[in-house]
UniProtKB/TrEMBL annotation:
<protein>
    <submittedName>
        <fullName>Peptidase M48, Ste24p</fullName>
    </submittedName>
</protein>
<keyword id="KW-0812">Transmembrane</keyword>
<keyword id="KW-0472">Membrane</keyword>
<keyword id="KW-0482">Metalloprotease</keyword>
<keyword id="KW-0378">Hydrolase</keyword>
<keyword id="KW-0479">Metal-binding</keyword>
<dbReference type="GO" id="GO:0016020">
    <property type="term" value="C:membrane"/>
</dbReference>
<feature type="domain" description="Peptidase M48">
    <location>
        <begin position="68"/>
        <end position="264"/>
    </location>
</feature>
<dbReference type="Pfam" id="PF01435">
    <property type="entry name" value="Peptidase_M48"/>
</dbReference>
<keyword id="KW-1133">Transmembrane helix</keyword>
<dbReference type="GO" id="GO:0046872">
    <property type="term" value="F:metal ion binding"/>
</dbReference>
<keyword id="KW-0645">Protease</keyword>
<keyword id="KW-0862">Zinc</keyword>
<feature type="transmembrane region" description="Helical">
    <location>
        <begin position="36"/>
        <end position="57"/>
    </location>
</feature>
<dbReference type="InterPro" id="IPR051156">
    <property type="entry name" value="Mito/Outer_Membr_Metalloprot"/>
</dbReference>
<dbReference type="GO" id="GO:0051603">
    <property type="term" value="P:proteolysis involved in protein catabolic process"/>
</dbReference>
<dbReference type="Pfam" id="PF13432">
    <property type="entry name" value="TPR_16"/>
</dbReference>
Length: 483
């Protein structure tokens, strides 16, 4: 989509089934599939905690999805009270998209958040405002109503087209030279009217979601100042771009209009002056640092934390950049200092494990991962996959057996994490269980969207598996899967 966010009228049929809403006027649509899957191959940082995969999208486009335990946990913690306030405590997925733009959108009951939003936002409160806006779209049923509006618009366009064709036929039959051209005008005008009706509807829903977002922020005793800051930034960016946008050709209101509409409501809130907790601000800085380091290296980290070299986020980002592009010894010394500053931070121990793996010390890496899992909240499947990978790298039979157990358990919690199946297949292969290795390989292909390859390996697995066992039946499910 163009920065001016003109509606892709040619793609209107797709939008009827899968609408997206966004915060800054740049749309991205995800393709619906039999399930939410990740397709490997776009950009994978093998062995690093930040992993990029790709979610298939419409018209051969794809949405590059980021998987990272630390970032996901942070976004979940920011979103949780907002989703609860919106009555969306369960059934909403939060998905990170590797895109530098400040953007978010919804599809079904999934909220997609660009890493660019996390990187650009200076406070957690700005992200809370974005998530509250998107929650407003889901809770308000805006996507379903947009589908209905699209259906009405399509009817308008079809009626106008038929009327235009009728005028053209009548003109030809009556030998009136001006009437066919008039028919064309009727058809074109009807289509344009339908398009504008949908755009106007979308603008109204965006304003509704803005107001709903402030309501959710008030319910959670958070400030709406972050939303105002976001719209002000967007307005300045649009002004500096020099692009003249026709507000009636956009699916979103202009940022200045949104700012003017919301400012009074935001400032009237008794929570307008509330600040983010210090611990949450620190986590926000760490997340920004990680994204900057992985996507732009040390220079990007320095740009984000200009004049804040002692900020823990800046130190974290420099450590990651050193791990990625410098000396493992230097990176290890840096991460030890981070751990000394925050001994209970599981993601510092995770990074230590990554550095030790790169330094070819898998046994020590496994210990670091075990510590990270011990400290991490919840049941961190991604960290467990890293732990299993480190155990596997030791090559010791008892560690390989443990790795297989851990990887299998982790993949029950992260069944669509395709890279994990490669490690599981390696573990089974080293243990001599070829049938299970073939099945794990089939699973990896299946969850990568490579169904043809998945079926080939599933058929090979069946030749080595006992008929009727759970593994044999799972292989049959893959064989029977629709392409």
């Amino acid at each position: 989509m163009s920065p001016s966010n003109e509606l892709d009228w040619q793609g209107v049929l797709f939008q009827t089934f899968c609408s997206s809403t966004n915060f800054n006027g740049m749309n991205m649509f995800s393709r619906s599939r039999r399930s939410f899957v990740s397709r490997l191959g776009v950009a994978i940082t093998v062995g690093a905690s930040l992993v990029l995969t790709s979610l298939p999208a419409t018209a051969q486009r794809s949405v590059p999805v980021v998987r990272d335990a630390e970032i996901e946990r942070y976004v979940e913690d920011v979103a949780s009270p907002i989703l609860k306030a919106a009555g969306l405590q369960s059934g909403v997925d939060l998905i990170l998209v590797n895109d530098h733009r400040f953007n978010a959108f919804v599809a079904g009951r999934r909220i997609f958040l660009h890493t660019g939003a996390l990187l650009t936002a200076e406070t957690p409160n700005e992200i809370a405002g974005v998530l509250a806006h998107e929650a407003g779209h889901i809770a308000g049923g805006h996507q379903e109503r947009l589908r209905q509006q699209m259906a009405r618009a399509q009817t308008m366009a079809v009626v106008a087209m038929l009327a235009g064709i009728g005028a053209g036929v009548a003109g030809a039959a009556a030998d009136l030279p001006g009437l066919p051209q008039a028919g064309m005008g009727i058809a074109a005008g009807g289509t344009e009217a339908a398009r504008r009706s949908v755009l106007g509807y979308q603008r109204g829903e965006e304003l509704t979601a803005d107001r709903t977002a402030i309501e959710y922020l008030n319910r959670t005793k958070q400030s709406a100042a972050g939303m105002l800051k976001t719209f002000d930034r967007m307005a300045r960016d649009l002004s500096l771009s020099g692009v003249n946008v026709d507000p009636y050709q956009s699916s979103h209101p202009m940022p200045r209009d949104r700012l003017a509409t919301l400012e009074t409501l935001a400032r009237q809130s008794p929570y307008y002056a509330v600040q983010d907790p210090a611990a949450l601000r620190t986590r926000h800085d760490l997340v920004r640092a990680k994204i900057a380091a992985y996507t732009g290296g040390a220079n990007a980290v320095r740009r984000v934390f200009r004049g804040q070299s002692n900020n823990l986020g800046a130190v974290y980002g420099e450590t990651i950049a050193t791990y990625l592009n410098g000396s493992s010894r230097d990176a290890l010394a840096r991460v030890e200092r981070l751990i000394a500053a925050q001994p209970s931070n599981p993601y510092f121990h995770e990074l230590k494990g990554e550095i030790l793996l790169k330094a070819n010390n898998p046994a020590a890496a496994a210990n670091a991962y075990a510590k990270a899992i011990q400290l991490a909240p919840g049941n961190p499947g991604l960290l467990q996959i890293g732990y299993g990978r480190a155990l596997l790298a030791t090559g010791q039979p008892e560690h390989v057996r443990k790795a297989a157990e851990i990887l299998k358990a982790a993949l029950t919690r992260e069944p669509e994490y395709a890279a994990g199946y490669r490690f599981l297949a390696q573990a089974y292969g080293q243990l001599g269980d070829v049938g299970a290795a073939e099945l794990a390989t089939a699973e990896g292909h299946y969850h990568s969207g490579q169904v043809r390859e998945a079926k080939i390996f599933a058929a090979r697995a069946q030749q080595r598996l006992q008929r009727g066992t759970p593994n044999w039946l799972r292989a049959q499910d893959i064989i029977n899967a629709r392409n």
